[in-house]
Design a protein that fits this description.
Strand content: 15-25%
CATH class: Alpha Beta
Radius of gyration: 17 Å
Order of helices and strands: EEEHEHHEHEHHHHEHEH
Helix content: 25-40%
CATH topology: Rossmann fold
Number of strands: 8
Length: about 300
């Protein structure tokens, strides 16, 4: 995912969910239907490609993105005993907070922006969170787009069938120093690893936005463990009664295509798009198509 510089974001603002401060901002000048963006495991809102956000604005959306708890500029929670994301996921160790808490963070952003309802687009772990927001707070959600995500109602070992482990294992073995240079190196390793094989990875462009918006999320395994270990106790996915669009790349090195198909199959009327040659990212050539697809989904709602 490569950001561009032709987009202006508002100053960072904060919503509050209990003791958690949730950082958010919006595309300056965007207006129209409310669209909330939810990014994935351990990564900040800055991982949303600026060009994609511009495409959303051009399609008539008021675009807001936020940092989930334990990511970016939002509250970092106290350390727990688990610092291995695999152990937290498969051991079902929700030691810090629940998946419901994470959905409530999103609703606090809606309240802070002044939105009664919004369309929600989530990528990777953010896709599962987007599904759960609609399940827990259906009155606040107009439609859901779930990208490169597993079904929201699977957990623990049930997730194992949907994951590919090569890239995850390589990233887990990498060691990065504390501080800014380690943050940059970890972010570049992740960006390089999830890139789409059918589209050239622009290393210099990735480095430019990573250095500008650097954060520690990609090497913070403790925060990742807290996020991925958060357990869901809410409704089953089949109860999601909102228009749903599922996006998935057929070359995703982290989440198998079957995960997207399983998500779509459980929700009546769901739409699904498989992108040939696309990995676990949202490459630039797809931005216009993705934005138009979300526009069509919103119009159907």
């Amino acid at each position: 995912m490569v950001a561009s510089t032709d987009l202006m974001w508002s100053p960072t603002r904060y919503a509050r969910n209990g003791q958690v401060q949730v950082a958010w901002d919006e595309v300056v000048g965007s207006a129209g239907d409310p669209l909330l963006l939810v990014m994935g495991l351990g990564t900040s809102r800055f991982w949303w490609p600026a060009g994609l956000c511009r495409a959303f604005a051009d399609e008539g959306f008021h675009v807001v993105r936020y940092d989930q708890r334990d990511a970016g500029e939002s509250t970092r929670m106290p350390d727990t005993g688990t610092a291995n994301p695999f152990a937290a996921l498969f051991g079902r160790r929700g030691e810090a907070y629940t998946a419901e808490d994470m959905t409530d963070d999103a609703v606090s952003v809606l309240d802070a922006v002044g939105w009664d309802q919004a369309h929600v687009f989530g990528h990777s772990l953010g896709g599962a969170v987007a599904q759960r927001i609609a399940l827990r707070h259906p009155e606040r959600v107009l439609s859901v787009t779930s990208s490169a995500a597993v079904p929201s109602d699977v957990g623990g070992l049930g997730v194992a069938r949907y994951l590919r482990y090569g890239l995850l294992a390589r990233l887990a073995r990498m060691k990065f120093p504390e501080g800014r240079e380690g943050d940059i190196a970890a972010s570049l390793a992740v960006a390089r690893g999830v890139a789409s094989p059918a589209y050239p990875f622009d290393e210099s462009a990735a480095r430019e936005w990573i250095e500008r918006e650097v954060d520690s999320g990609p090497r913070d395994t403790k925060a990742q463990s807290r996020q991925i270990g958060a357990q869901w106790h809410g409704p089953r996915l089949r109860e999601l009664g909102k228009p749903l669009l599922v996006l998935h790349g057929d070359a995703d090195p982290i989440v198998r295509q079957s995960a997207g198909r399983a998500t779509a199959s459980r929700v009546t009327g769901a739409r699904m798009t498989i992108f040939p040659g696309v990995g676990h990212d949202l490459p630039e050539p797809l931005w216009t198509e993705v934005a138009r697809s979300v526009r069509q989904l919103a119009d159907s709602a």
